[in-house]
Design goal:
This protein is α/β, with parallel strands linked by helices. It has two domains: 17-111 and 114-148 and 187-290 and 463-529, FAD/NAD(P)-binding domain (3-Layer(bba) Sandwich), CATH 3.50.50; 160-182 and 295-374 and 401-458, Cholesterol Oxidase, domain 2, CATH 3.30.410. It has helices at 5-11, 39-50, 73-80, 118-127, 135-148, 160-172, 208-214, 269-276, 342-347, 353-361, 402-421, 440-449, 508-529; strands at 15-18, 27-35, 55-58, 87-88, 95-96, 151-153, 177-178, 180-182, 218-221, 223-231, 234-243, 249-263, 288-290, 295-301, 316-321, 333-337, 366-373, 384-388, 394-397, 426-429, 460-461, 491-493. The strands form five sheets. Strands 1, 2, 3, 9, 10, 11, 12 and 22 form an eight-stranded mixed beta sheet that branches. The longest helix has 22 residues, at 508-529. It is globular. It starts with a helix and ends with a helix. Residues 393-514 form the Glucose-methanol-choline oxidoreductase C-terminal domain. Residues 31-66 form the FAD-dependent oxidoreductase 2 FAD-binding domain. FAD binds at residues 225, 496, 507-508.
Length: 530
């Protein structure tokens, strides 16, 4: 087990506080303030601190460490996720899981690390006016992130849940790939989504944030940046509210003045903060084209135990259908396995009473596949919009499009075919009133005739992207390809909100690499200002 870096670090004098430790109405000053401590914010904090800048990290979530990660869903979801892992879009048709703790979603993700697909980067360049982020330009930054975070191909045997992906794809002649993971000394426990209790996951919690703190950075937790004020073309001040672990505002607030501001609060909170602050947005792009990789679930029952709660959550995926109809053709989807834990299964399946109880009794024999739909590449694909209520709180308006439901039908058919090819004795697409199928022939006929629609089909997401798009055309983008605001000289965005579309791949490695490249540029510019 790797020691908790915070234990020795805090004892040695790391500057780590809660917002309630700051005097009411106090004003803090720093070189760079970073809002958020996830993949983008922590990477930037490490690089800037190593470059000699005075860095302040503001994190709305609590500091939770390996000693707090007890592998229990009842504690992990309320302590580590936005809205206790029960966030929904406005239509209440998509369950959205986002981290809310020091390290952001990197603390609770499943460690899957995939480079941005070349087709996505090419589309950004040709259709979204993104410059300097082609595959060749990004390659050294991917390599640096992979080296820093121990990202390598998972060499241990796949657990049975993931082996279904490999076996089914191999039998059908479909493409499939072994997954790269950001782990060192992994014990193969399978509880990555509840925080790593042995610090093997190379999340921001145990890598970049400790390095930043060791080089003089300051971290304030449970600190919600509510608004920013502006002075012409510059951010003037940040207004910060102390909140408790349940996200309730306390009666204390303070302000921050910084020479440069980095927003890295994620693809809902970053545009929401800018909108609450009445930031310039003449082309009304803030909050728009928010994408999710909305995902569908297909369960399968096997004769032999699967024990999908045990072992690396994800070790195989298939891109057989991601680009089958082109970049802007019918929506493609990526097939992955999903780990199963009792609360997660119960909340992401249909049925009541005996039907639901019978499903739960099969827990150790259940496999789950997910199809991540590649959204946001054109108007037919669909995307969402971040909106504010009267109190200024953020919500996601995301109606699922006809194009999505057409993709859902193809995805359910593909997952069922793969599961039967891998030896499943029964398959259950997670859709209201869908029967348990005992053959591919029966499944394909019923799925083809089924009308999939909102609230009758479980749709989930753990990949929120966009809403503060990058590009060189301000009519489409709020920041440049380097993440620099088109309107404020001392404001940069470094998180997944800058993606102009979804990725077609799990996003953490894309955020690491693009942040590294853009932060390198920022450091040069900041040194030139001195």
């Amino acid at each position: 087990m790797t020691p908790d870096p915070f234990e020795a670090g805090i004892a040695s004098g790391w500057n780590v506080q809660q917002a309630t430790d700051i005097a009411n109405a106090e004003q803090l000053k720093t070189d760079v303030v970073i809002v958020g401590s996830g993949a983008g914010g922590a990477t930037a904090a490490e690089m800037l601190a190593l470059a000699g800048f005075k860095v302040l990290i503001l994190e709305a979530g609590p500091l939770k460490r390996s000693k707090d990660f007890v592998m229990e869903e009842r504690r992990a979801y309320p302590e580590l996720y936005q809205q206790s892992a029960a966030m929904l879009n406005q239509q209440q048709s998509i369950g959205i899981m986002q981290g809310r703790a020091v390290g952001g979603s990197t603390t609770v993700n499943w460690t899957t690390s995939i480079r941005t697909p070349d087709k996505t980067l090419s589309f950004w360049q040709s259709d979204k006016r993104v410059e300097g982020l082609d595959a060749q330009s990004l390659a050294p930054y991917f390599e640096a992130a992979e080296q820093r975070l121990g990202i390598t191909t998972w060499t241990a045997d796949a657990n049975p849940n993931n082996q279904v992906i490999a076996d089914g794809c191999r039998a059908l002649g479909w493409q499939y790939t072994k997954i790269n993971r950001n782990v060192k000394g992994c014990w193969n426990l399978g509880y990555c989504g509840m925080g790593c209790p042995i610090n093997a996951k190379q999340s921001m919690l145990v890598t970049s944030i400790p390095t930043a703190l060791s080089h003089g950075a300051r971290l304030i937790t449970q600190a919600q940046v509510w608004q920013m004020s502006f002075d012409g073309e510059r951010v003037n001040e940040l207004l910060v509210r102390a909140i408790d672990e349940a996200d309730r505002s306390l009666s204390r607030q303070f302000s921050v003045k910084a020479k440069h501001v980095i927003l890295a609060g994620g693809a809902i909170n970053t545009p929401a903060l800018l909108m609450r602050s009445n930031a310039q947005d003449p082309h009304r792009v803030l909050g728009r084209n928010t994408t999710l990789h909305p995902s569908l679930i297909s369960a399968a029952i096997f004769d032999e135990p699967i024990k999908a709660h045990s072992g690396a959550p994800q070790s195989y995926y298939s891109d057989e259908f991601v680009w089958k109809n082109g970049v802007q053709g019918r929506m493609g989807f990526k097939i992955e396995a999903a780990p199963l834990h009792p609360m997660l299964l119960a909340s992401k399946s249909f049925g009541f009473g005996r039907q639901h109880a019978d499903l739960m009794k099969q827990f150790n024999y259940l496999h789950a596949s997910i199809a991540l739909v590649r959204d946001g590449f054109d108007s037919l694909h669909g995307a969402g919009q971040v909106v504010l209520d009267e109190q200024g709180h953020a919500h996601l308006n995301y109606p699922l499009s006809k194009g999505f439901w057409e993709a859902a039908k193809r995805a359910f058919m593909a997952m069922a075919q793969m599961q039967f090819a891998a030896g499943a004795k029964a398959v259950l697409p997670i859709h209201d009133n869908m029967p348990m199928f005992e053959s591919w022939q029966h499944a394909s006929k019923v799925i083809a005739k089924t009308n999939f629609e909102e609230l009758t089909t479980v749709v989930a997401s753990a990949h929120v992207m966009g809403g503060c798009a990058m590009g060189e055309d301000p009519t489409m983008a709020w920041v440049s390809s380097q993440g620099k605001s088109h309107y404020y000289k001392n404001l940069t965005v470094m998180d997944g909100s800058i993606f102009p579309t979804s990725l077609g791949a799990n996003p953490q490695l894309s955020i690491y690499a693009i942040t590294r490249k853009n932060c390198e540029t920022l450091i040069k510019e900041l040194h030139e200002r001195v």
